[in-house]
Known about the structure:
The complex is a heterodimer. Chain A is α/β, with parallel strands linked by helices. Chain A has a single domain (about 5-95, about 130-175), classed as Rossmann fold, CATH 3.40.50. In chain A, about 30% of the residues lie in helices and about 20% in strands. In chain A, the strands form two sheets. Chain A has a five-stranded parallel sheet, with helices on both faces. Chain A has a two-stranded antiparallel ribbon with strand order 4-6. In chain A, helix 2 packs parallel to helix 6. Chain B is an alpha/beta fold. Chain B is built from 19 helices and 28 strands. In chain B, helix 11 (about 425-440) packs across helix 12 (about 445-455). The longest helix of chain B is centred in the first third of the chain and has 17 residues, at about 75-95. The radius of gyration of chain B is 28 Å and the shape is globular. The two termini of chain B are about 30 Å apart. The chains are: A alpha/beta, B alpha/beta. The interface between A and B is medium-sized, with 30 and 21 residues.
Amino acid sequence: MTKPKVASDWLCGCAGCHMSFLDIDERILQVVELVDLRATPITDLKEPDKDGVVVGILEGGIANTHNEHVAKQMRERCKILVALGDCAVFGGVPAMRNFFGAEAALQRAYVDAESNDSEGKIPCSPELAELTRVRAVSEVVKVDLHIPGCPPHADVIFYALAELAQGRIPEIKDDMLHWH
Amino acid sequence: MIKLTIDGKTIEAQEGTTVLKAAEEAGLYIPTLCNHPQLTPYGGCRMCMVDVEGARTLQPSCTMPAADGMVVNTHTDKVLNARKFVLTMIFSERNHFCMYCPVSDGDCELQNRAYDEEMTHWDLQPNWQPFEVDASHPFIILDNNRCILCRRCTRACGELVGNFTLGFEERGANSLLVADYNVPLGESTCISCGTCVQICPTGALIDRQSAYQGKEIEVDHHIGVCVECSVGCQRNVLTRDNRLVRIEGEWDAELNHGLLCDQGRFLPLEDDRGRLLTPLVRKDGSLKAATWEEALNTIAQGLGKGKGLAALASTRLPAEDLALFKSIFADNLHGELVTSLEEGKATASLAKLAEELGKPFESSLDNLKDTDAVLALELDLVEEHQVPGFFIKRQIPEGTTLVVADGKENKLAAHASVRLPLTAGEESSFLENLLQAIEGKSADEGLNRAAEVLKAAEKPCIIYGKTFAEKADAKALQHLLDLAEKLGAALIGVKGEANSMAAAQLGLEAPFTPNGYQSAYVLLGDEDPSQKLVKRLEEIPFVVVQAAYSSQASGSADVVLPVTMWAEQAGSYLSLDGRLQKLGQALDAPEGVLTSQAALIKVAEALAVDPDTDWKASLKARIPTVEMRED
């Protein structure tokens, strides 16, 4: 039996969910026994396989056009898409800026912040992705499984991965369910 | 009794009850949000929707009257879907991103309901409409962004506290919780009782003191009586790592059912007085740290007995301590003056009256909960003993009339329909005139109006304060009894500090006047000494102060013994209406600090005195003004 391929990526998040994934510690050996870990922020491969993976995991909300592209690509290339953590599930901490708008957030960060000098400028290179309203992943692409938490506990991530690897959809409830 | 079927189970219920209450009494769970056992059902959140056979739509069980033969289902797909939909709508209405919120993960009823329904996400995105956060209040933060518009706070403010500060402005999604006519909460008519914070199901109303200091699962609970006044409210003291986190009113308490005032809830956490951590002995004119042994030796040498010895104790101390204090200083050392720091001002005249009558004449505070007319004599229940004031204020919209008689500025008078001038010292003539008005023999318009409302009442109450107890002479007290008899009124004397009545029972009520005392023992506990006390003590050559905090009194003493504050000791308190209640120890005392009781026992040993420790018998040795009951 071939092991199911799993890929992950992070969008507008803090990497905390991937840190929590690493917090499964030695259990990662059990995970790689069960799955073929492909492109992730912690492996060398950077994009999910063109011929597809079984499980795609996304951390972070969708805050700009690049995030949109990554989310859509992951959706196209995976069978089961998992939104991991409160930012992917709800929008999370970055979504705070939605209450004020991206312009105000940029102005505050690059110009008005106390730590800036008088020459603070909002970066405007055409290479930069364009900011959008921060959205939950499910607002942009269809999500098959939501694992909330800020971050989700390592035990929850391990449980979810183990279930997915064995072809089951994990039930996130009771002790496994925390939004933080 | 009626019979109805809920989820296939046939249950009996009282006629006139709601589906929710019937279900709860039968042990069946229906989730709720806007509902609260202490409040009138409101039907605002739609969390408790149930399927009633024959009804066109789902019905809110909190407001739906239970009827005979009704068949109710709480777990159909329709109901479960409706619950999720209601929650999704609430979450999408405002800023319910849990990671920013201090009540997240355990202390939020909204989040808990979502967990119960196994919601891993919301299908609707938020509305992204920001509201201003009001942080103008010294204790409370009001964040409309987290409000679910359940109106528990506004209902509690009005229905339970009778303050009517909180209300709503605008409608629908723009609804805004505001104080008064939308002024900052800190500048509003809010009296900082904190009931709104305690009843808020989300983080919309949080208190500054305990936010982020510990969740429900991280704190220890200590339920006991409040020691800030003689009302005897039950509190829930939350601690974590030997530190006070928060004080809440105990919802299940018979008297205060969750209510507290600012003194009981917020002010104890603001205490920043310096602690006394070691015994001090005056050497060469200045106080020096000493061992307990040195301090006790100095007391044994310096403290006199009999004539020339004055001993005073705080009425914030447990009854056990007060009885021990009395046994040591009055019964064994025969001190010339053995009294409380209140000097019996709020109790002595009344205790004497009870003795003369040979029976109690005062009644329980519960009488205030369904009274239809109250006469408050020289008492401002807005400033002191506030919780009984809530009982009165909250009934005023329902027709309870309040008559306030006072000569001083009195904030309770703002709620009164009749205000009468009463100069301190003229209680006798005032009550005589009121009696005449009741007999229809007065020409005074105010007195006649008061007489009219009091006479018309079915359950009138007369409540009086310290000034009245201090100033009323025998004649005035006789008039008071006559008045109560004529009106069929309950008499309630509010007394003073937490154990004011226990001190009265022990006869600790003599006035402290200069009398050439040679030595004094002051059991201050955690009380702040008055300027008058400090001055009086300065005239006494040898003074021992037993206190928790550094003060002018400890600074000028000859020996200082460090003792516990209220949360570090255990004991009993006799409320103003005779309920004997317990306070348990919530915190460990700092090292080297003894409880007042342990310190007294050490002092007794040092003075070779063997005190009586049957405190309960001592309390019962005198006829009380109000019947004593033990919970």
